[in-house]
Amino acid sequence: MLNYGRRGPKMRQLMNMNALQDFISVITHGSFSAASRATMTPKASISRRIRQLEDELQTRLFERTNTGFTLTAEGTLLFERIKPLVNELNDIKTDMMEQTGSPSGKLRISVPPVIAFDTLGKLAARYRALYPLVELELIADSRLVDPIREGFDAVIRVNPMADEEMIGIKIFKETLIFVASPQYREQLALGDPLTELPFISIGTHWKPNQISTVLEGEPRHFNVNTELYISSPFITRSTLISGVGSALLPEALVADDIKAGRLLHLGVSEQPELILWCLYPSRRYVTGRLRAFIDLLKETFSQESSIHH
């Protein structure tokens, strides 16, 4: 028999979502005043909700000072744990609203300098035309960003390492060609097996001793000595044309230079192909705006070479 006359143990209340968003906003914007301006919420309301959050958690999240605030250890822990969860809840809310309308919200994508900026420019323009309510942010960066901690919805990478926290979608693949400056033409024509070509390593500190290729159906092997490290294939191409070095570069980037005699074609590399991937966190909800971006990304790169000048 159920007894409705007595109350059971008091149910613990969930943390207030608005208070958590205020907490994140204050940290993100650097002050209570800046958070108030950014969110168009009265400063007094933000302060009150954060005090209530501290009371609920029975701990101090901020140490107030004359110049602002610093996070306590507990505040830092809460921020690191709650920020991705609140962001994901907001994404789910936005996506539910998108079911009856067009994608909206902010989309942050990290892209490497290795891929064509004009192709990405066309993609950005088309995405904007199709989804005008989305605030698209493309950030070109050669470093390996942490998409979860740095707030990226997805990252585009070339031949990335396996990562169980990320889901990958293959976008495009490109053949690598071993090319060299024309100044080595006579040296290579002599066929000296001890000849060492100066080599430029792109984006990594990979130092090969030999490059193996296939040219006109015949295997070829070249001894190399790594002398330069350059993060950009475009700068590498310019360096080769200026008379220094050899490198593995995408076929689409060097095809015209080979035809014009600006670069020597030393064969198709036996190294793995250059493969372009779009990666996003496996534990994060995939929003409609990200799905739309990935679909357009695949369509765009299937129509154009991924790297050209």
Automatic annotation (TrEMBL):
InterPro entries named among the record's database cross-references: LysR-type_TF_proteobact-type, LysR_HTH_N, LysR_subst-bd, WH-like_DNA-bd_sf, WH_DNA-bd_sf
One Pfam match: HTH_1
GO MF annotation terms: DNA binding; DNA-binding transcription factor activity
PANTHER family on file: HTH-TYPE TRANSCRIPTIONAL ACTIVATOR TTDR-RELATED, HTH-TYPE TRANSCRIPTIONAL REGULATOR
Domain HTH lysR-type per the UniProt entry, residue ranges: 15-72
The keyword Signal belongs to this UniProt entry's keyword annotation: no
Keyword terms of this UniProt record: DNA-binding, Repressor, Transcription, Transcription regulation
Record protein name field: LysR family transcriptional regulator
Source species: Serratia liquefaciens
Family per similarity comment: Belongs to the LysR transcriptional regulatory family.
Superkingdom: Bacteria
Keyword Ribosomal protein: no
